Amino acid sequence: MTWEPVIGLEVHAHLKTRTKMFCRCAVGFGAEPNTQTCPVCLAFPGALPVVNRTAVEWTIKLGLALDCKIAEHAVFSRKNYFYFDNPKGYQISQYDLPSCMNGKMILPTAEGNRAIGIVRAHIEEDAAKTVHVGGRTGRIRGADYSLVDFNRGGTPLVEIVTAPDIRSAEEAKRFLQLLRQTIVELGISDAEMEKGTLRVDANVSVRPEGSDELRTRTELKNMNSFNFVARGIDAEIARQIEVWESGGEVRQETYDFDATTGALTPHRAKEEADDYRYFPEPDLVPVEPPVELVERLRAELPELPAARIRRLEAELDLDRAIVLVTGGLDRLWADSVAEGADKIAVANVIANNLVGAGIDPDAVSAKELARLVKARDRIPRFVFDEAIAKLGEPGFSADPYLAQEAVSDEAELEPIVARILEANPGQVAAYRGGKDGLLGFFVGQVMKETGGKANARVVSELVRARLNAP
Ligand SMILES: [Zn+2]
Description:
Blueprint: E1 3-14, H1 53-65, E2 69-70, E3 76-80, E4 90-94, E5 100-109, E6 112-125, E7 129-133, E8 145-149, E9 156-162, H2 169-186, E10 198-208, E11 218-221, H3 226-245, E12 253-258, E13 263-269, E14 279-280, H4 291-299, H5 305-313, H6 318-326, H7 330-338, H8 343-356, H9 366-374, H10 381-390, H11 399-402, H12 410-423, H13 425-432, H14 439-449, H15 456-468
Parallel strand pairs: 11-12
Antiparallel strand pairs: 1-9, 1-10, 2-5, 3-4, 3-14, 5-6, 6-9, 7-8, 10-11, 12-13
Helix pairs in contact: 1-4, 2-3, 5-6, 7-8, 7-9, 12-14, 12-15, 14-15
The structure holds zinc ion.
Zinc ion binds near residues 20, 25 and 40.
C-alpha cells in the first residue's frame, strides 16, 4: 500500500516589541537573569495587565499577510496550569476567539501554487525560561536543581497553526522557510530557530493514498532547525507506516526528535492531556480593531515573498527564485542586475559563493559585486574567491582584484596543456573513449601548474580542442 503523510504545523514566533505583552518590562535576550521583571509579569497580587498595542498590530499585520480574516472581536483567555515557569498559575492567550483566522499561504512549486491553509494566528505570552542543572539530559528528571529566569516570562508570542495540508517533510521545510521570511520582512520578529525566537511543532499522521480520512496523529517537539524538522517528520512517517503495516495502531503521543541519533523518544503520554479550563481573562477588554487600523496595516504590507518568487521565476527559474527570495537575497540580486551583471551568473554567485562565505547581503555593494561578476572569466579563480570573501567589508572596492587579470594568452598556455596531456596518456585514452567528465581533470591539472593564474575558460577550450583533434 502507498501511504500519504498528513502534516500540520504549529509555529511560535517571538514578537520583537520593545516591551512585554502585558507590562512595560523590556524584552531582550542576554540580560542578567531576573532583571527584566515587575509586579505584573511576576504576578504579584493586585497587579493588572495592559495589552501591548504594537503586539496586537503586528499580529494583525501577519494575519493580513497570511490572507486571514481579521476578527472584529478577539478575546484573551486564561489557560490554567500550574508550573514554576508560570507565576500566575495561568497563561494569557487568545483561545476560541483569536485575532486572525481562515487564511492561507501560497507555496510556489514546479506543479503550480500550493495553498497551505492557516487555521489561526493568535497572541499569547511566553512562560519563563527554566534551566535544569545536573543530570544527563538537561531535562528536569535527574537534575540536581532547576533555575528560573523570569525575563522571558510575559514576552509576546504569535502562534500560527496550519491546516493539515502539508504532504511531505520537504514541503514542510519549504513552507517554514517561506513563512519565516515573511515574518522577518514584516519586521515583527527575528524568527531565528537557533535562538529560540521561532519554534516549530509538527503534527504528523499517515493514511492510505487517495483516502481522505484523518488517522491518529502524533506531535513532534523540540526540533531546532528546519532541517531537523524535516528529518524528524521523515522519521515519524516511517515509524507510523511500520506500525500500521505490522498490524498495530498509532497512539496519540508527543515525541522529541534527537537530531544526533535520529531517535524519537516519547515526550509525555497524552492521557495527562490537558484540561486547561480556559475562561475569558476578566482583567482585559476584547481586542476590537477599527476598520481604519486594519486597512492602514493592509496598505503597509510589502510585496510578499511568495509573490516575488513568482515574479523572479520568469527571469531565472523556480529553484533559483526560491533560494534568492527565502534567503533574503533578491534585493541584492536585483540591484546587481541593474548595475549590469548577468542575471543567472550573479544569482549563482550570490546563492553559492556569498552564502557559502556567510556574508550579510545587506553589507554588500551591488555595484562592486556586479563589476566582479562581469570580470569573472578574466580574473583567476582564487582572486575572484578572495574578492567575494571580502565583499562584506566596509568600503570594499573591486579595483585591486580586477587588476589581476588571468593568463589568457594561448601561446603561453598551449605548451602547458600539451605537457599535461602527454603526462596522462591513460586519461586521454579514457576521454577519447567517451569519458567526457575527465575534461575537468585536465583543466584542473593545468590550473595547478599555473598556480591558479590561468583563465579557466581559455584552458578548457584549449584542452578540448587538443583532445578532440584527430
Ligand atoms: Zn513586567
